[in-house]
Design brief:
alpha+beta, three-stranded antiparallel beta sheet, 8 helices
Length: 223
C-alpha cells in the first residue's frame, strides 16, 4: 500500500485517490469471493489502513480534498461526481443533469443501435423531485468533506434547518468541526463516511447496476 503511494509520487502524481475495494456481488470478483467464502478485512484492519494512508499523505504534503482523495500543491482538484453537472458518454455511463440523474443502457448493441438512429440511450432516470435536489447536493458536499453553510441554506431552502440539526449532531460526535462558515469533516468523520460510501455502493449501486446489466431497457429498479 505505502509502496504504491510512493510510486505514485515518484511518477509526479499531484492527486491520489484511494478508493476502497468494492466487491460488487454481480462481478466476477464478487462471485469468486462468495464461492470461496473470502471475507473482507475486519473493521480494525480497515481503520488501520485508512489512517496509514491519511498520515502518509499528510506527511508528504498532500491535503484531503474528498473522502478518498488527496492533492498536492495548488493544482485544481479533479472530480467528476461532485460537480454540479456532468455528462457520461457510452454504455452504462451516468449523467448528472439539472433535473436529475440518468443512466445509459448497459447493453452495447442497444447503445450502438440507438446512437445510429439518433435516439437517446438513457435507460433509467432518477428525477430530482422537490427537496431531492438539495439533499443530493448535501450528500456530495459530505463526500467533499466540506459543507459551505451559506450555500446549504440557499440550496436546501425549507429543509435547511433539518440539515443543520443533523450537522450539529455530527459536530458534537467529533466527526466534524466548524471553520467559519464551513463545516469540515475530521479524519475520523471522513473514515466513517468512507464506510458509509462502501455500504451505499454495495447496496444501491449494486442493485441498480445488476438490473441494468440483466435488461437493456429496464422499466424500473426496486431499490
Amino acid at each position: 500500500m505505502i509502496g504504491d503511494l510512493s510510486r505514485a509520487v515518484q511518477l509526479g502524481a499531484d492527486q491520489i485517490t484511494t478508493y476502497p475495494l468494492f466487491t460488487f456481488p454481480y462481478t466476477t470478483i464478487g462471485k469468486y469471493l462468495r464461492l470461496n467464502a473470502v471475507r473482507m478485512p475486519n473493521l480494525r484492519t480497515r481503520h488501520a489502513h485508512y489512517w496509514a494512508i491519511n498520515e502518509w499523505c499528510v506527511q508528504h504534503g498532500y491535503e484531503r480534498v474528498s473522502v478518498w482523495g488527496f492533492k498536492h500543491g495548488s493544482v485544481p482538484r479533479y472530480s467528476s461526481v461532485t460537480r454540479d453537472g456532468y455528462i457520461g458518454i457510452g454504455p452504462g455511463a451516468g449523467s448528472h443533469l439539472p433535473d436529475g440523474f440518468v443512466l445509459n443502457t448497459f447493453d452495447l448493441k442497444s447503445w450502438i443501435k440507438t446512437m445510429c438512429e439518433g435516439k437517446s440511450a438513457i435507460a433509467l432516470r432518477m428525477p430530482f423531485a422537490g427537496e431531492m435536489s438539495g439533499w443530493w447536493w448535501l450528500y456530495w458536499r459530505l463526500y467533499d468533506t466540506r459543507i459551505p453553510l451559506d450555500d446549504l441554506t440557499v440550496v436546501l431552502g425549507e429543509d435547511a434547518p433539518k440539515a443543520l440539526h443533523w450537522l450539529r449532531v455530527v459536530e458534537k460526535a467529533g466527526l466534524a468541526i466548524r471553520n467559519g462558515k464551513i463545516i469540515e469533516l475530521t479524519p475520523t468523520g471522513a473514515f466513517w463516511l468512507h464506510l458509509a460510501q462502501n455500504f451505499f455502493a454495495l447496496n444501491y449501486v449494486n442493485t441498480l447496476w445488476t438490473e441494468a446489466r440483466l435488461e437493456a431497457w429496464p422499466q424500473s429498479v426496486p431499490i
